């Protein structure tokens, strides 16, 4: 998958992209991230990318011309590439949105700065707007990295043997259960015996139950939309009964 990112600060992104799983994914040609400096697309001797807003008010606004020029140059006529503006006003990023984007062969991400971008960019250039949460960052770079990271780990081959994205929190509609590693006993806290039993089917059932339990405790609303089997529902009924019993015993 190819992801182009237009930003005023490419060097902010290159460090993160140059390490660990994202670096290996690029080295293995599973992911191709290209950084483009918005300033390179600004005309004139001073390469001005931002101006004060019409009508007054504080801050600066990213001008439309460099953004339109950057997108045209990066796309070079390629059709059907989503042009995504990172903005706190966009649709909320989530695991399903990451999966939707991971199904694309290309993405173009635009990072805003200052007060944001000229409204004509939003109206006539971008095809999608994404927010990574209900808070305001100083720029779209961190948001772009969040999107690239969450999308990249869904691409076939990127996680390799290091982890299975299918069982991660939110991938199944549930939170994932606990993980343990060596030592088997740390201080007075042992690893659950079942994980050391070597019985694959029992371990799988235990993990599923732990995921259900954790979701039920922390994010019960996710259970309303998670795909559940009859066995899952039976286990959730046991949890509810346990809680009712504990409340009665108080
Ligand atoms: C200070 S923000 C501009 C906020 C804008 N004035 C508003 O109220 O909607 C500067 C840039 O940071 C990025 N940004 C800030 N918060 C974000 C969020 N929650 N998700 C995605 N991008 C965000 C956007 O690219 C935005 O253009």
Shape: elongated
The total of helices stands at 8
Bound molecules: S-adenosylmethionine
Q: Please indicate the percent range of residues in DSSP E strands (runs of 2 or more).
A: 15-25%
Return the string of H and E elements: EHHEEEHEHEHEHEEHH
| Cross-sheet strand order for the largest sheet | 2-1-6-5-7
Distance between the termini: 56 Å
Q: Architecture of the largest domain, CATH level 2?
A: 3-Layer(aba) Sandwich
Query: What is the total domain count?
Result: 2
Low-confidence stretches: none
Radius of gyration: 23 Å
Fraction of residues in helix: 25-40%
How many DSSP E strands?
9
Multimeric organization: single chain
Q: Main sheet, how many strands, which sense, barrel? A: 5 strands, parallel
The CATH topology label of the largest domain is Alpha/beta knot
Q: What's the overall average pLDDT, rounded? A: 97
Which homologous superfamily in CATH is the superfamily of the largest domain? SPOUT methyltransferase, trefoil knot domain
Walk me through this protein's architecture.
This protein is of the alpha/beta class. The strands form three sheets. It has a five-stranded parallel β-sheet, with helices on both faces. A two-stranded antiparallel ribbon has the order 3-4. Strand 8 and strand 9 form a beta hairpin. The chain has eight helices and nine strands. The termini are far apart. The chain folds into two domains: 2-161, 3-Layer(aba) Sandwich (Alpha/beta knot); 185-248, tRNA(m1g37)methyltransferase, domain 2 (Trp Operon Repressor, Chain A, Orthogonal Bundle), CATH 1.10.1270. The protein is elongated, with a radius of gyration of 23 Å. The structure holds S-adenosylmethionine (SAM). Residues 86-89, 111-113, 115-117, 131-133, 135-140, 143 line the site of S-adenosylmethionine.
């Amino acid at each position: 998958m190819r992801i182009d990112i237009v930003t005023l600060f490419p060097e902010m992104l290159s460090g993160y992209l140059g390490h660990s799983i994202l670096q290996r994914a690029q080295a293995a040609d599973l992911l191709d991230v290209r950084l483009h400096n918005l300033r390179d697309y600004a005309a004139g001797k001073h390469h001005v990318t931002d101006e004060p807003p019409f009508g007054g008010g504080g801050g600066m606004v990213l001008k439309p011309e460099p953004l339109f020029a950057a997108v045209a140059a990066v796309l070079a006529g390629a059709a059907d590439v989503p042009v995504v503006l990172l903005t706190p006003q966009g649709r909320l990023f989530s695991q399903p949105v990451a999966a939707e984007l991971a199904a694309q062969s290309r993405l173009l991400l635009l990072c805003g700065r200052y007060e944001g971008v000229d409204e004509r960019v939003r109206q006539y250039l971008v095809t999608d707007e994404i927010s990574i949460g209900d808070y305001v960052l100083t720029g779209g770079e961190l948001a772009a990295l969040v999107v690239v990271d969450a999308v990249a780990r869904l691409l076939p081959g990127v996680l390799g043997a290091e982890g299975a994205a299918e069982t991660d929190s939110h991938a199944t509609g549930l939170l994932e259960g606990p993980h343990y590693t060596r030592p088997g006993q740390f201080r007075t806290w042992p690893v659950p015996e079942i994980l050391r039993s070597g019985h694959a089917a029992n371990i799988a059932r235990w993990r599923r139950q732990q995921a259900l339990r954790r979701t039920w405790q922390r994010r019960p609303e996710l259970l309303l939309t998670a795909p559940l089997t009859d066995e899952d529902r039976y286990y959730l009924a046991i949890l509810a009964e346990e809680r009712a019993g504990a409340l009665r015993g108080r």
